[in-house]
Design brief:
Elements lengths: L1 H26 L6 E7 L8 E5 L4 E4 L12 E8 L10 E9 L4
Parallel strand pairs: 3-5
Antiparallel strand pairs: 1-2, 1-4, 2-3, 4-5
């Protein structure tokens, strides 16, 4: 009976600590993604939250969720160019495919 308990305890501890490492690794993988910083440009006519890339390029995302609309927030993204027109004209209009926040 004590041996049975020891085996169960070992398995439970292994799952708990082993599972945590895998979950952390999955959320910190940004390979293939582009680093971008959220910039509130609402003071410009027709603009809202844009994404500034490390090379200084601005992107105007069509589908940035409200939880990511925080000035200065760093995101890792992938995107597709959009053929739609924009009033903002500060950045290239894009549709985000992937958005990851390293702080989450």
């Amino acid at each position: 009976m004590i041996l049975n308990f020891a085996i169960r305890a070992t398995l439970i501890i292994g799952f708990v600590f082993g599972g945590c490492k895998n979950q952390k690794d999955a959320t910190t993988d940004y390979s293939g993604l582009i680093k971008a910083t959220v910039v509130d440009m609402s003071e410009l006519d027709g603009c809202n939250h844009l994404l500034k890339l490390e090379d200084g390029t601005f992107l105007e995302p069509m589908n940035l969720e409200n939880e990511f609309k925080k000035n200065g927030m760093v995101l890792y993204i992938s995107y597709k160019p959009s053929k739609a027109n924009s009033v903002c004209m500060k950045g290239k209009l894009v549709e985000l495919s992937t958005v990851k926040n390293p702080i989450k």
